[in-house]
Amino acid sequence: MAVSVSAPVLSLCYNQSGELSRRLGYRLPKKVGFSSSRRSVSYIGFGAEKVGRFRVRVPICRAVPPLLFKDLDADDFRHPLDKQNTLLLRAIPGLNEFGKALLGSMTEQIMLLENIGTSVLVSKNQLSDLHGLLVEAAEILNIEAPDLYVRQSPVPNAYTLAISGKKPFIVVHTSLIELLTRAELQAVLAHELGHLKCDHGVWLTFANILTLGAYTVPAFGQMIARTLEEQLLRWLRSAELTCDRAALLVAQDPKVVVSVLMKLAGGCPSIADQLNVDAFLEQARSYDKASSSPLGWYIRNAQTSQLSHPLPVLRAREIDEWSRSLEYRSLLKQANRISTVQKV
């Protein structure tokens, strides 16, 4: 997540071009994204059998109906680092008030119209199968389904906009749909829903605006911005771990979530069926071993300190470990079965 975006823009990994920020007249103080070496805006988000040009015709095949978490609260699956870093953000004096003062209704309207004018709104009558995946994921997580848009883009990405006073919406790029299976695509939608479930948009918006404003102030203001940026990036990385858990609660199979991360790290439609989740998890364990020495620890921190997302191998390891935890198993025991597999 680049600190130059001035609205709660949430997504899982790849950077988008800075086109939207330039249209809004914002400069990009620093590149903090996941994969691009250019200055760019990145969004918090995840990324078909191949879905092709939306040829989703049947619901996800499950051996049994998925579990429904009727009374699920965000803190039931929030990552400990997310809890810790959220408390640090809340401790910043006046963050809420300053953020509200800087975020005007005109900026919100520009961002909303920018998306509506360049994407396809998913509904019961438009790409109804994608709509069904979203509705089922929202029901599992006990959250109201936001709007969903499909946008033409060669960059595999998904992100969420939570605009004050308006219904939030998720945007999924066509190239991501081409890359993922239906189960993986639903895991991506669940990840985005996790950001909404945990109210990540509020803190992301205010902190982004505060950082952008501080960069326009010389000397002392820039020092504040750098300090806040470090706190923001730590929080963003921990928020991603929480939303990976939301993806697992919907997929209810850790290999589905790990497969998404693997494909976003180094996948494309032509080789997707050759990728091996177990090999990727072994790669994650080898990374832990390689970075366990003092020098490895230093290199690892330097490698990740300016990223808005944890490294894919670290996220894969985290979600694999949580899938075997007592916390996750306890949530599964408390859940109920959905009466129908697919609700549109």
From TrEMBL:
Instruction: Name the coenzymes or cofactors required.
Output: Zn(2+)
Tell me the protein family, please: Belongs to the peptidase M48 family.
The superkingdom of the source organism is Eukaryota
Q: How is the cofactor bound?
A: Binds 1 zinc ion per subunit.
The record's GO molecular-function terms, alphabetically, read: metal ion binding; metalloendopeptidase activity
Return one Gene Ontology term, BP aspect: proteolysis
Query: What is the protein's species of origin?
Result: Arabidopsis arenosa
Record-linked Gene3D superfamilies? Metalloproteases ('zincins'), catalytic domain
Q: Which InterPro entries match?
A: Peptidase_M48
| A Pfam family reported for this protein in Swiss-Prot or TrEMBL | Peptidase_M48
UniProt keyword annotations, A-Z: Hydrolase, Metal-binding, Metalloprotease, Protease, Zinc
**Can you give the residue ranges of the Peptidase M48 domain?**
129-322
Protein's recorded name: Peptidase M48 domain-containing protein
